[in-house]
Amino acid sequence: MSYATLGFQHDARLDDGHMRPTGFALLELSAAEEKKIVALVRKALTQERGKPLHSQDGE
To answer: How far is CA 17 from each of CA 29, 31, 55, rounded to the nearest angstrom?
Structure first.
């Protein structure tokens, strides 16, 4: 089975307590997975910059 991986540096601060999800295996890219990826990237950028991001599509 082949799959793509999506990873984050520790600076993304996606952790919840003492565990940090730094990599994800992507078996399929559906609308649901795309939405999760967008949410993770926004969270990572918000944590880094300290302020919320505003999307162009109003989400």
So the answer is: 28, 29, 28
